[in-house]
Amino acid sequence: MDDALDFLLDKYQQGLPLEDARVRFAALVTLDAENLPMTRFVTIRSFTRAGISISVSGDSPKITHLMSNGKWELAGFWPVQLFQYRIRGTYEIRCGEDERATWHMKPEASRVLDVYHENVRPQSTPLASREQLLEEVATLRRNIDAGLTPFEAKKVSSLWLSPTFIETWEGSDDDRLHDRSIWKLSESKWVRTRLVP
Ligand SMILES: Cc1cc2nc3c(=O)[nH]c(=O)nc-3n(C[C@H](O)[C@H](O)[C@H](O)COP(=O)(O)O)c2cc1C
């Protein structure tokens, strides 16, 4: 296969019915203000030729990092297929009608947390204690029920990642001669280079 996206998408589609839950999760790395890497796991909402989409809070550190330096890497390991990848490229943050519609399909508790992020404390900011969070969320729920706080989250966004660099690793358990490649997008074409495993 000559196209890295087709290659990865094929693997991804094969992984979904294998019920390898890990196909849906990936490690997203960004660089913080001190140029230090920060990794967190995220859920892949969709993966098509249009890109990889992840639901994020618009005020989260990962988005602050991206907006300040633009650097990211997404990595995953799919044990059932004995396959790993890492991806770099460009990104776009979208916050429009599609995001609003998708947000309404999230579980209620997740939506309450999103409203909390926007009205009480942003994601990843410090708390005095676990009790503080529980009390503040209970108060928020009462305020939502009383109509004092709108049950909406305007900053929930989708992060769209468009690969321009993909590294793939297909395990070969018997001989350990794993098949590794890097693929780089050059003038709309993927150029593949095999690597020593
Ligand atoms: C399995 C799993 C899936 C997750 N999915 C998401 C996700 O889709 N979006 C998200 O913003 N955080 C997700 N998180 C939480 C992030 O790992 C992270 O704690 C949070 O986004 C704050 O990251 P930041 O402070 O680096 O921005 C997930 C965590 C786990 C363990």
TrEMBL record:
<dbReference type="InterPro" id="IPR012349">
    <property type="entry name" value="Split_barrel_FMN-bd"/>
</dbReference>
<dbReference type="GO" id="GO:0010181">
    <property type="term" value="F:FMN binding"/>
</dbReference>
<dbReference type="GO" id="GO:0008615">
    <property type="term" value="P:pyridoxine biosynthetic process"/>
</dbReference>
<dbReference type="InterPro" id="IPR000659">
    <property type="entry name" value="Pyridox_Oxase"/>
</dbReference>
<dbReference type="GO" id="GO:0004733">
    <property type="term" value="F:pyridoxamine phosphate oxidase activity"/>
</dbReference>
<protein>
    <recommendedName>
        <fullName>Pyridoxamine 5'-phosphate oxidase</fullName>
    </recommendedName>
</protein>
<keyword id="KW-0560">Oxidoreductase</keyword>
<keyword id="KW-0288">FMN</keyword>
<keyword id="KW-0285">Flavoprotein</keyword>
